[in-house]
Amino acid sequence: MRVQGLRTTLLTLLALLTSAFGSIYEHAADLPGLQYDFVISICAGGTAGLVVANRLTENPAVNVLVLEAGVSNQGVLDSNIPFFVNNLLAPNIYDWNYTTTPQSALNGRVIPYYRGHILGGCSAHNDMFYTRGSMDDFNRYAALTGDPGWSWDEIFPYFLKNEKWTPPADGHDTSGQFNPAVHSTYGLTEVSLPGFMWSLAPRVIQATREFPDEFPFNLDMNSGRPLGIGWLQSTIGHGVRSSSATAYLAPEFVRRGNLHVLLHARVTRLVGGRRADHGELMFGGVEFMRDGEPDSEILVAKAGKEIILSAGTVGTPHLLMNSGIGDKRALQALGIPTLLDLPSVGTNVSDHPVVGLSWMVNSTQTLESVTQNVTAFSEAFAQWNRSHTGPFVDHGASQLGWFRLDRNASIFKEFRDPAAGPDTPHFELGFSAGIPSIAAPPEGMSGHLMTIGVAVVSPVSRGTITLSSGDPLDPPLINPGYMTSDFDLYTLTEGLKRAQRFLTAPVWRDYVLAPTVDLNAFTPDELQQFIRNSTASTSHLAGSAGMSARGARYGVVDPDLRVKGVKGLRIIDASVLPIVPSAHTQATTYVFAERGSDLLKASWT
Ligand SMILES: Cc1cc2nc3c(=O)[nH]c(=O)nc-3n(C[C@H](O)[C@H](O)[C@H](O)COP(=O)(O)OP(=O)(O)OC[C@H]3O[C@@H](n4cnc5c(N)ncnc54)[C@H](O)[C@@H]3O)c2cc1C
Ligand SMILES: *[C@@H]1O[C@H](CO)[C@@H](O)[C@H](O)[C@H]1NC(C)=O
Ligand SMILES: *[C@@H]1O[C@H](CO)[C@@H](O)[C@H](O)[C@H]1NC(C)=O
Ligand SMILES: *[C@@H]1O[C@H](CO)[C@@H](O)[C@H](O)[C@H]1NC(C)=O
Ligand SMILES: *[C@@H]1O[C@H](CO)[C@@H](O)[C@H](O)[C@H]1NC(C)=O
Ligand SMILES: *[C@@H]1O[C@H](CO)[C@@H](O)[C@H](O)[C@H]1NC(C)=O
Ligand SMILES: *[C@@H]1O[C@H](CO)[C@@H](O)[C@H](O)[C@H]1NC(C)=O
Ligand SMILES: *[C@@H]1O[C@H](CO)[C@@H](O)[C@H](O)[C@H]1NC(C)=O
Can you give the three-state secondary structure of 120-164, one letter per residue? Predict the structure, then answer.
């Protein structure tokens, strides 16, 4: 170990004795120095960043600094209690408060774009759905990059390494609700089935028996073959959210003397850019300051081995461009000197648009029985507090369904099938027993509801992340380009029809009373306008620093996640997924982070 490393270790021991949070620091002055082997900048301790920090520090000879702009997750009830899922959304200290640019295909609407500003990143404030995507999704990543290491078969062990399968909070018999053969109990992220049964859930399953051809039951959507309707699995353990912060920064890991996490540390750019022996660009470290205090001192953390960016699909391209890595003309226009002309940074981003539909139901056993009743709400809170059981252990979603358009759908005359393969869905239906948490019921509605979210999961639309100015503290411009392709509009329309057809199964006869918006009263043009007016984001943005084959004419990182043309700089987060998977994106982010950690270890032993 180098002298510097030794000094760092000694100082760390000292810091451990004095800091209440082990090696999670609130102030830069408390850090044991600013020289580390790996600086996971920014990663902020997000979903991927904390996986990498954990795995690298398994080796006590390696020291790691994580710089997270956000706040601590410790004791944040709105993050811990699954039922409070919406309480953390913007504007809020737990969120970056971003919005999209006016969306041309959504009648110019500007919509919120949520990003976690808390240790654990989005995993500490997302909806906790645990979906792995299809085998095809991963096999396409392997084909696009020429690296079989990203194929389903090779990635599958990383799902098992990440996952800790956990019994549901109500301890119910889960046989017939999942396939144990595709799960593991030895990982870190807790995953479980719903732990509180609302009146909706058994009816969804009954409907799959009544309409098995169009809506088949799928025992386990996380087998790599997701098509059909199955029970939702969530990153929840024993009634509490499992985030990358609770799992990968559990006390036994925080205790490691070589792992340092600084909160409120806003990274502004990579610094010390120079040309290495073979002309490759290299950086010495990252510049950061206290988050939310633009006049605070600017500090530099130096990385002896590598810098890893894990700032997420918005933060990572933002940092790259602020550091002079991006499209030369765009950087020049903002007065940022270009260190590396890499035009794909921030382009080609993809996301899943979603429209929610609600129906009044003939049941009092819905989320509204808790959200609209102060007494029931306090009882549920007290029950969760006492035993981590009761209505607060979930947020009311019970099943998901994954579907393809009809083979002969007219849209295929105009578009090639954008799905990754024949086992990959075009759209998703998500079933919820009401309207979760603080989200207000539709205007003028009271009573009990059910909701079906319809999302396009093989979108053709693409968008961009660009800079709004040369000031790294200014928010970037987020343009997901929702519905800019007619394919996506067509698919969402078909998804809405499919949801309506599902509700014609006999089981719904005494249950579904009336829709809150009657789609059948719309002309086709009005229906299209309704979709444009009500499309929301799933926050599944991917691809802003996309992976491509070595030597490809586009892309930002090579298949080993190294930034093309730069030495000692990797990106490990959802930005590298070249195309959004046909699934909620956290499981994919976790496995990319797990394999990314192995790639890092392999190059430093
Ligand atoms: C509201 C919401 C709901 C979602 N629901 C689901 C779901 O149910 N299931 C699912 O699978 N996926 C869901 N997702 C998506 C999923 O959570 C994300 O795709 C995934 O967590 C992204 O991980 P990441 O590591 O790429 O980024 P993040 O987790 O966002 O991590 C990035 C981190 O970097 C920090 N950071 C950024 N810039 C800087 C900077 N300059 N300096 C220092 N730190 C910085 C951020 O504060 C953050 O902690 C949801 C996302 C959101 C926002
Ligand atoms: C988001 O807005 C809230 C309320 O205005 C504010 O308190 C919070 O600091 C903002 N978050 C960030 C990251 O700036
Ligand atoms: C509200 O909840 C309490 C406690 O569960 C219950 O006794 C009461 O009947 C509920 N009120 C209404 C209007 O449903
Ligand atoms: C939760 O339990 C603690 C004691 O364990 C108590 O102080 C607190 O008031 C309880 N909160 C609620 C909402 O029941
Ligand atoms: C597609 O085929 C089905 C029968 O398999 C038929 O009912 C439907 O009308 C066809 N749709 C189109 C757009 O041709
Ligand atoms: C509501 O459900 C009950 C059975 O639980 C049934 O008797 C009644 O007819 C239903 N009401 C409507 C309007 O469907
Ligand atoms: C869509 O929104 C516009 C206003 O932006 C409104 O004029 C129109 O009636 C809305 N249409 C539907 C079907 O919601
Ligand atoms: C976007 O990604 C696709 C592969 O998914 C690639 O073929 C295309 O060249 C990329 N475009 C840009 C501008 O990077």
Answer: CHHHHCCCCECCCCCHHHHHHHHHHHCCHHHCHHHHHHHHHHHEE
Annotated binding-site residue numbers: 267
**Per-residue model confidence (pLDDT) at position 356:** 95
The residue type found at 175 is S
Tokens 């800091």, residue located: 19
- What percent of the chain is helix, strand and coil (3-state, nearest 5)? 30, 20, 45
CA dihedral 27, 30, 34, 37 (to 10 degrees): -100
Q: 241-272: string of b/e by CB count within 10 Å (b at 16+)?
A: bbbbbbbbbeeebbebbbbbbbbbbbbbbbbe
| Three state DSSP letters for 55-68 | HHCCCCCCCEEEEC
CA of 510 to the centre of ligand 6 (A): 5
> 363: CA distance to ligand 3 center in Å?
14
Predicted pLDDT of residue 33: 84
Q: Residue 451's closest CA among 198, 226, 233?
A: 198
Residues 229-266 have pLDDT tens digits of 999 999 999 999 999 999 999 999 999 999 999 999 99
CA 579/CA 576 separation, integer angstroms = 9
In degrees and rounded to multiples of 5, residue 600 shows phi and psi of -65, -50
Nearest to 145 by CA among 540, 566, 562, 600: 562
